[in-house]
Design a protein that fits this description.
Strand content: 15-25%
Number of helices: 11
Distance between the termini: 61 Å
Helix content: 40-55%
Largest sheet: 6 strands, parallel
Shape: globular
Structural class: alpha/beta
Number of strands: 10
Length: about 325
C-alpha cells in the first residue's frame, strides 16, 4: 500500500471521506512502535475508512538546550513505512502551515498535571504538546486518534483535554512496543552508542523489577485472604504443614510493602546502573495515579503507572508500565 504525501490542510480536506478517519500523530523518524499504531488504526478504520499519519516536529515542545535541531527527519522513509503499515495518507505540514502567524499567542495550558514529572523536567513542554495536538485534531478532523502508552503522561493529558474541552474525537491508547531485550522503542534510541544502549536497558529492567515485586505482593495478599487469622484455625493449618505459608501471607498483607516496596525494587536497579560506564542519570522514578499523575498511597486501589525518566550520555529516555492494585478485604 502506498501512502499519499500531503503538505497542506487544504489538500487533506479535499480528500473524499467514505468512512471513519483514524489519525496517528508523530514527529517522524518512524519505527516499529509507530507501525503498530498505524496497523491498529487500520483495524479501527476498517477497509472503508481512512488512516492519516501526521509527521510534524513541533518546535513548541522543545525547550532551551533540547534536541530540536538534531531531531531526526526521515520523511521519505516515514512515508514508505506508513504506507506499508496501512496508512492512506501522510500529512507533513510545514511550520508555517501549522502556525501561519508565527508562534501562537493563544495556547492550551496543561494545568497542574502538566507541571508534574515530565512537566517539571521540561517546563512548558506539555503546553506546546497540547497546543499542537489541538491544532492537528482541527486540521485532520478525525473520528479517532491513536497515541502510544509509552508517553503515558502525554496520553493522559490529551484525554483530559479532549474531555474537558469537548473535542468530538475518540482517543485510543496503544501498548508500548519493545525490542527483544525490553528497551522501549523510541526515535531517540538511535542516538545511543552500543555502550549507552546497554546502560539504557536499566530503565525497562527497573520497571520489570517493580512489576515483579508488585505481582508477588498481589499474589501473597490474595493468599492472605484465604488464610485464617484465628489461633484455632492457624493451629489446624499448622497440623497440615501450612503455618509458614500462613505466616508469610499475613506478614506481607500487614507489614511494609505496597507502593514503597515497588519503588524500592525499581530503584535498586537504577542505582546499580548509575555505577555503570557510561552511567545512568536518573530524572525521576514515580508510581502514580494516571488520572492526575500524583503519587499513589499505601491504600491505593485501581490502575497505576510506574514511570521512569533518565539520561544516558546526551540522550534522555522515558518508559513506564501499567500496574493494577486490587481491593483487599479483611484478611481474616
Amino acid at each position: 500500500m502506498t501512502a499519499t504525501l500531503l503538505r497542506t490542510a487544504a489538500d487533506l480536506h479535499a480528500r473524499v471521506r467514505t468512512g471513519r478517519r483514524a489519525v496517528v500523530m508523530t514527529m517522524g523518524a518512524l519505527h516499529e512502535g509507530h507501525a503498530t499504531l498505524i496497523r491498529t488504526a487500520r483495524k479501527i478504520a476498517g477497509p472503508e475508512g481512512e488512516v492519516v499519519v501526521t509527521v510534524f516536529v513541533n518546535p513548541l515542545q522543545f525547550g532551551a538546550g533540547e534536541d530540536l535541531d538534531r531531531y531526526p527527519r526521515t520523511l521519505d522513509a516515514d512515508v514508505e513505512l506508513a504506507g506499508t503499515s496501512g496508512a492512506d495518507a501522510v500529512f507533513a505540514p510545514s511550520v508555517d502551515e501549522v502556525y501561519p502567524g508565527g508562534e501562537p499567542q493563544v495556547r492550551i495550558s496543561a494545568g497542574p498535571m502538566g507541571e508534574r514529572l515530565e512537566g517539571a523536567a521540561r517546563p512548558g513542554h506539555f503546553d506546546g504538546m497540547l497546543t499542537v495536538v489541538a491544532k492537528l485534531l482541527h486540521l485532520t478532523r478525525p473520528d479517532v486518534a491513536l497515541y502510544g502508552q509509552k508517553d503515558a503522561q502525554q496520553l493522559a493529558l490529551i484525554r483530559r483535554m479532549v474531555r474537558d474541552l469537548n473535542f468530538g474525537v475518540e482517543i485510543v491508547g496503544v501498548p508500548t512496543v519493545r525490542e527483544e531485550d525490553g528497551l522501549a522503542l523510541s526515535s531517540r534510541n538511535r542516538y545511543l552508542s552500543p555502550a549507552e544502549r546497554r546502560t539504557a536497558l536499566a530503565l525497562s529492567q527497573a520497571l520489570f523489577a517493580g512489576r515483579d515485586r508488585h505481582a508477588a505482593q498481589e499474589a501473597l495478599r490474595a493468599r492472605a485472604r484465604e488464610v485464617p487469622a484465628s489461633r484455632a484455625r492457624a493451629e489446624a493449618l499448622s497440623a497440615i504443614g501450612e503455618s509458614r505459608a500462613a505466616a508469610d501471607a499475613h506478614a506481607v498483607a500487614t507489614t511494609a510493602g505496597g507502593p514503597a516496596a515497588i519503588r524500592a525494587a525499581a530503584r535498586l536497579v537504577l542505582d546499580e546502573a548509575a555505577r555503570l560506564d557510561p552511567p545512568l542519570t536518573l530524572d525521576y522514578l514515580a508510581l502514580v495515579d494516571p488520572s492526575d499523575f500524583t503519587d499513589v498511597g499505601d491504600d491505593f486501589t485501581g490502575e497505576a503507572v510506574l514511570a521512569v525518566a533518565a539520561r544516558v550520555g546526551a540522550t534522555r529516555l522515558i518508559d513506564n508500565i501499567p500496574l493494577t492494585f486490587g481491593t483487599f478485604g479483611d484478611a481474616s
